[in-house]
Design brief:
The chain has 17 helices and 5 strands. The chain is an alpha/beta fold and about 375 residues long. The longest helix has about 40 residues. It has a 5-stranded parallel sheet with strand order 2-1-3-4-5, sandwiched between helices. The protein has 2 domains: about 100 residues, Rossmann fold, CATH 3.40.50.2300; about 230 residues, Hypothetical protein af1432, CATH 1.10.3210. Helix 5 links the parallel strand 4 and strand 5.
């Protein structure tokens, strides 16, 4: 049997129904009030796997109990799931800010409750393990900044290592984006090389392609600034949360400004363009500025397809992976937004290289 699950609600029917659903897999303990909930959290400590909690609790209110748990670091260690009543439909956004990872509402569906709880517990445990990795990344960054004093080729190697370390922090934060930046870098190199051969007039060179590929590692660096409740949310984002998520483009540019002195002018400019504009679309349907056509920097256009393709063939907390063939079709048909015709044509020609990367990394999780 797994660990303990605590259910804190003054509604007897909710305690009974959730207990019936979970008792086969967990040791279920219940609290009918905020005071009892606080005591059981303290008494059971490390044994708790998850907590279901209602807002309108007798005694200590649910939000006060949740704030105390957040201040004590408990919310970061185990998932809190809000039991949402029909009378409080506007609670969701406020509680996400406090650290709640999911919501349930009656009528409870047994299979859905069990599956979502398993996923949330798995995510929390992976996040706990990633804390040590984040600490190691911080040490790596300090070393990389010292290396930036080196000259010539050593300086170039240090810059690349710094960018890779910064990009890796985003992956450890997202938990399930395993080597996303590495694959985007490879996809960028393949597509850039194909474009250079197909359209010499674009002025691409091996040096520029390498620069774009290296800078692509920072395309999502702004997500470091976003709250866990959005980054790790397993369900669909609200309109407000989507706006916060989209802000990672501008926040990433702000972070780049902070390390500008450690980058060459070319590295900074490429990273800035990619970070800011990799979600723009050729028909003006992207963000953050709704740019269109060749107003979008070429570097951002190349990384945009690389990032989109990897996002499609990868499994995420909130979605399943699609097959290689489906991902290819979605991009060329414009289902994922409109890309430049020349870039789409070159993307068609390097399809085999893209699919080879997927096969080599063993990440083709969807059936063809």
């Amino acid at each position: 049997m797994a660990g303990k699950v605590l259910i804190i609600t003054g509604k007897l029917v909710e305690r009974e129904e959730l207990t019936d659903i979970l008792r086969d897999q967990y040791e279920v303990i219940c609290a009918p009030s905020g005071e009892d909930g606080r005591r059981l959290i303290v008494d059971n400590g490390e044994e708790l796997e998850a907590v279901f909690i209602r807002a309108d609790l007798p005694g200590i209110p649910g939000d006060a109990l949740l704030k105390a748990a957040a201040e004590g670091g408990i919310v970061k260690r185990i998932p809190f799931i809000a039991i949402e009543g029909e009378e409080d439909p506007e609670t969701s956004n406020e509680w996400f800010e406090l650290g709640v990872m999911d919501f349930v509402r009656r009528p409870f569906r047994s299979r859905t409750i069990r599956r979502r709880l398993e996923n949330l517990i798995r995510i929390s445990k992976r996040q706990e393990k990633s804390t040590e990795k984040l600490g190691a990344q911080d040490e790596t960054l300090k070393k990389q900044f010292k290396l930036l004093t080196l000259q010539s080729e050593e300086l170039k190697k240090s810059r690349n290592s710094l960018l890779e370390a910064l990009g890796s922090i985003v992956e450890y934060r997202n938990l399930d984006y395993s080597d996303h930046i590495g694959r985007v870098k490879l996809f960028t190199q393949f597509l850039g090389t194909r474009l250079m051969k197909d359209y010499p007039e674009l002025g691409l060179t091996p040096e520029k392609i390498e620069l774009y590929a290296t800078a692509s590692m920072l395309h999502d660096i702004g997500k470091i600034c976003l709250p866990d409740s959005i980054i790790l949310k397993p369900g669909r984002l609200t309109s407000e949360e989507i706006e916060v998520m989209r802000s990672h483009t501008s926040k990433g540019c702000e972070m780049l400004e902070g390390i500008r002195e450690y980058l060459s002018k070319d590295h900074y400019n490429a990273a800035y363009d990619i970070c800011k504009y990799h979600h723009e679309r050729y028909d003006g349907g992207g963000y953050p500025e709704g740019m269109g056509g060749d107003m979008i920097p070429l570097s951002a256009q190349i990384v945009s397809i690389a990032d989109t393709y990897d996002g499609l063939v990868s499994e995420r907390i909130y979605k399943k992976a699609v097959s290689k063939s489906k991902a290819f079709e979605m991009i060329v048909t414009g289902e994922c937004g409109v890309f430049a015709p020349r870039i789409i044509e070159s993307f068609r020609r390097c399809r085999a290289e893209y699919e080879s990367i997927v096969d080599q990394t063993g990440m083709d999780l969807a059936a063809e």
